[in-house]
Amino acid sequence: MTGRQRVTRFQSGATLVELVITIVIISVAIAGVVGAFALITGRSADPLNQTRAVALAQIYMDEILSRRYDEDTPVGGSPREPGCTINTEEANRADYDDVDDYNAINNAVPANAEGTALGADYGNFRVSVAVECAGDEIGLPLEEDAKRIDLLVTNPSGQGYSFSAYRANY
């Protein structure tokens, strides 16, 4: 062969532009996935905190509702004269003997009936209790016939969970 020889070769591969476009597309996809995981991870404690708040509310409500209506109500729950007063007589949690006494709990560390803290699982939770006369709210003849117990449990992130119950004068 004389002169220049022409050699034709077939080349395959990706150009620099194709590589850059591929890298940009993959980067956008990875950023979206990482953002979704960050959102999911940030909220993963919410169901656990909700479950603990409900359990804590159940502990408190069971304890409060097992107590007498007020200081003058005899043990056993027999009816007494109508009347509703909110008197917080006891300062020590272990001495709480009627519903009124729990009205003193405000933004407190969760504790059992003896006043002992419930431990690490509930250490960052806070509990507040409000007691007020409310017989007319539930259809009783007199406001003095029942008390409403409002319980607020606040989780470590500051979200509050409200619970209410009624204790009748019987």
Description of the structure:
This protein has one domain (48-168). The radius of gyration is 33 Å and the shape is rod-shaped. Strands 1-2-3 form a three-stranded antiparallel beta sheet, with helices on one face. Helices cover 28% and strands 15% of the residues. The protein has helices at 16-42, 46-65, and strands at 126-133, 146-154, 160-168.
Please tell me what the overall shape is.
rod-shaped
Estimated structural class: alpha+beta
* CA gyration radius, whole angstroms: 33 Å
Order of secondary-structure elements: HHEEE
**What does the largest sheet look like?**
3 strands, antiparallel
**Can you tell me the number of structural domains?**
1
Mean pLDDT: 82
- Strands, total number: 3
Give the end-to-end Cα distance, rounded to a whole number of Å. Answer: 118 Å
- Spans where pLDDT lies below 50 across 5 or more residues: none
Helical segment tally?
2
| SS strand fraction | 15-25%
Query: What is the topology, as strand order, of the major beta sheet?
Result: 1-2-3
| Helix share bin | 25-40%
